[in-house]
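Re: the pair you flagged

First of the two:
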Amino acid sequence: MMRNYDVLLGYDYDKWYGYAMKEPVLSDISVNTNSHILICGMSGSGKSYLTNQIFARLCIQGGENSKVYFSDFKQDDTFSHLRNCNRYYPYDKTIKALNTVYEILHNRQSGKDTLRTPVTLIWDEYVANILALISQDKKQAQEVMRKVSEILMLGRSLAVRLVVSCQRPDAVVFPTGSRLNYGIIIIVGAPIKSIYEMLIPKEYIERIGDREFRIGEGVVLLQGSELHFIKVPVIRDEDKLQRICIEALNR
């Protein structure tokens, strides 16, 4: 049974193919649990499609008082419907979104802000963004990664959430093991062993077995201990999904 603080990540992969059943794989996104989300997958894996879905579902679950900030480093056509939104931050403005959310975190930590309505920063192509920053200004890149790590450590109880999308979660942009501080880890698309080894305990990798994931299919690890295999739902009304996201970035 779906609770009002659950978010749909996909349908159970084995039951979909074995029994033609749509059994939802859900995750608690309340402040009682770690709801930071890391979405990984190579180009063409369905990663952006899933990011759009999770974005819309977080907006719905968070209610009208929630706030979402969107950093779009790549700025291709995938999220072009968001470009005129108030809290959309493209290419060279992505760090501004981080600093805004980081300030909210510290205002809540200090007691200056007593609100606990959800605040979410969605950062598409995070790794590419940080690697580009490292090549330009290593000191600034280190400061950005420090702030991200701090949000990951303190955000849960202060209702500040980070959703990061990337191709490969390379350790260089996740200092001191921070990539394991995500309560929800999703890997979509054809299996790449090195990505599994970066994010999933060895004994869980063995459970993947001979499954051959296609676009929009993959692995979910919840809270470091609960493994699922999912098939991402097909959205029938993409215009509605886009409207939900646009409204959330403008309110």
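Second of the two:
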Amino acid sequence: MFYDDDADLALLDEKTVAIIGYGSQGHAHSLNLSDSGVDVVVGLRDGSASAEKAAAGGLKVLPIADAASEGDVVMMLVPDELHREVYESEVSDGIAEGNLLLFGHGFSVHYGEVQPPPGVDVALVAPKGPGHLVRRQYTEGSGVPGLVAVQQDATGQAQALALAYAKGIGCTRGGVFATTFKDETETDLFGEQAVLCGGASELVQAGFDTLVEAGYDPNMAYFECLHELKLIVDLMYEKGLAGMRYSISNTAEYGDYSRGKRVITDETRANMRKILEEIQSGDFAREWIAENRAGQENFKRMRAEQAATRVESTGRDLRSMMAWIDTDFHE
């Protein structure tokens, strides 16, 4: 585990960091590094809607190829599915020997979509939180924990430079774990698919549907199966499973122990293992890459189907009455 004292931000002095992309992570990394005194340029395609936002944040915006050429450190923060195209067409020619090529997620390197040349450092700095949280915690004087990994160490300075970058965005304030591209990629995909996104979304949807189909008010179903989930997750985040169980009622705790395994069954666990096998073998990566090359038809269909569910329409109505919730979202 690395903290502030283990990282030397001065290693980025007289270096330019090019951030390719200005989405959730891109904007946070760019602004945090700039506030840390690092020379930052943002690489965006002509006509990008993000260019005005980046410029408004006081950042220098360049076409991607120019930013990559100017950067001594180049961080790829465009979506995974665009890495190969953007890297090959606009970034690769600007990566000089001795430069550091960084990634916020190991997917494209681990699965061979991006193949950096010899002579450059290749590393990963991955905050374990969404971009808005990376930015907010930095401005509040704290930081989101992160991961660091080195895939290729041509200069002998790859890890030290990656840690300097992690310090610049605030991650060493929270602590940075050393890992590998393989482990970061496979555990991240599994967590998203089986628990954090796929598992949690299906569990919420199934609980909501069960109550509504049994004749209960959809508003009540929404509160019980979705809205209150944040309260439980916050307790887990702060205190772990045991602390969460200490904080809830005895009735809820008994129901947890006696009924939870009827929801997450041996069959569920077997399916989790199957999901992990598909990630480890590269089957999921090949499926997702093929989906993107085919125009994302199935992805867009599934997105539209889920947006049209009753739990979503119920939630939109209820959230519109909750002034304390930030509803600034693309829905």
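Residues 229-247 form the longest helix (19 residues).

-B.
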